[in-house]
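Task: sequence design from structure.
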């Protein structure tokens, strides 16, 4: 049983399935009599945390989105640092194609959303919603495909998703931060400097990094920059190499990846995906915002990734991943339309709880539907083209 559980927890596809189940349960709870009241109570449950006079009294929704999700972004930051120092992002030759492809997967979805929503300043706040790719889901779908997708293409998608996350972090920092408080920013810079100094002095005790990271989160939370950025910034100060054969960075990543993937992200999906379907009509479902999100994720992602990849390869600046063809690359481009976690997160920053009043929650429904359809269609297409390629190689 223990071996089965270890295998289950280490399986990326299991994390993706759990995320989807959490979203489905959120929809059920929000739309079934009796359960709906419990769901609203749960999401808005007030929780007080703090020491002495310093206390935060906020809803569960806040603690999940602005506190627990910091750990998710911390892992993203750890992964980015590791890849930049010694992984896929450390060699320019390995980065060019996925980097340009990721750019296409960010630009075209945003352009599609902007075209559909042009002239509506409130709707335009959501331009970045369809630019994201959910790593857990995308890698999970690829895991289900097995040998029908070459290893080189899986590495391409993983690298693309990492760069996509970096783009999302920059977008959140630059476009979804409120008015800045210079005092808190200055204090945050001092704390960050102290963490960098710990790294330079080769202090390999985790405790001071954890304490300073918590202080950094509080300061950035009050600075006007979104609190999750604290997770990314703190991650880059964590030492990669400590004693020979050991790594504080990888130790922290291993310790956090299971609770983040199997507790925090499903909880995030549950508290953010609950949309009431009562009173919805065609006018709501086919409004400009849900259509911009859906077309951006499903069509914008696949076309943007493929088009930018095709251009960079035809210009002979990069080459296709080893043993992969154009049909397979297009198939994984469809899979990258699974926005889910990051798209829901950006949606919350763009519209907040006002999305219920403005769009009856159809913005979130569009994310869920586009992600689901991208996953299913991408899986089917990748399986078909992969099977054909294997058949040709066997002849």
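Answer:
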């Amino acid at each position: 049983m223990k071996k089965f559980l270890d295998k289950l927890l280490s399986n990326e596809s299991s994390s993706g399935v759990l995320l989807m189940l959490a979203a489905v349960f959120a929809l059920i709870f929000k739309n079934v009599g009796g359960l709906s009241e419990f769901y609203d109570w749960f999401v808005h449950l007030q929780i007080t945390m703090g020491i002495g006079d310093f206390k935060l009294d906020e809803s569960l929704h806040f603690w999940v989105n602005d506190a627990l999700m910091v750990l998710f972004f911390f892992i993203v930051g750890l992964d980015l640092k590791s890849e930049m120092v010694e992984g896929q992002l450390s060699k320019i030759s390995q980065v060019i194609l996925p980097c340009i492809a990721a750019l296409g997967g960010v630009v075209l979805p945003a352009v599609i959303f902007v075209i559909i929503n042009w002239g509506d300043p409130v709707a335009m706040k959501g331009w970045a919603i369809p630019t994201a790719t959910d790593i857990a889901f995308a890698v999970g779908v690829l895991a289900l495909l097995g040998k029908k997708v070459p290893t080189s293409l899986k590495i391409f998608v993983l690298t693309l998703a990492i760069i996509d996350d970096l783009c999302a972090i920059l977008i959140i920092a630059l476009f979804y931060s409120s008015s800045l408080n210079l005092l808190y920013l200055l204090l945050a810079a001092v704390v960050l400097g102290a963490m960098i100094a710990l790294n330079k002095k080769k202090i390999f005790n985790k405790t001071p990094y954890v304490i300073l990271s918590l202080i950094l989160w509080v300061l950035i939370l009050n600075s006007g920059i979104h609190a999750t950025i604290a997770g990314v910034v703190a991650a880059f100060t964590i030492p990669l190499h400590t004693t020979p054969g050991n790594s504080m960075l990888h130790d922290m990543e291993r310790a956090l990846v299971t609770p983040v993937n199997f507790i925090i992200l499903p909880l995030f999906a549950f508290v953010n995906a609950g949309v009431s379907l009562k009173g919805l009509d065609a006018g709501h479902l086919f409004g400009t915002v849900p259509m911009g999100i859906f077309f951006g994720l499903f069509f914008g992602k696949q076309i943007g990734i493929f088009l930018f990849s095709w251009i960079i390869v035809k210009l002979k600046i990069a080459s296709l991943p080893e043993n992969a063809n154009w049909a397979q690359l297009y198939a994984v481009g469809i899979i990258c339309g699974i926005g889910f976690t990051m798209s829901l997160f950006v949606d919350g920053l763009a519209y907040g709880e006002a999305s219920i009043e403005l769009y009856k929650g159809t913005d979130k429904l569009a994310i869920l539907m586009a992600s689901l359809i991208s996953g299913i269609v991408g899986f089917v297409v990748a399986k078909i083209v992969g099977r054909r390629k294997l058949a040709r190689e066997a002849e």
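The radius of gyration is 21 Å.
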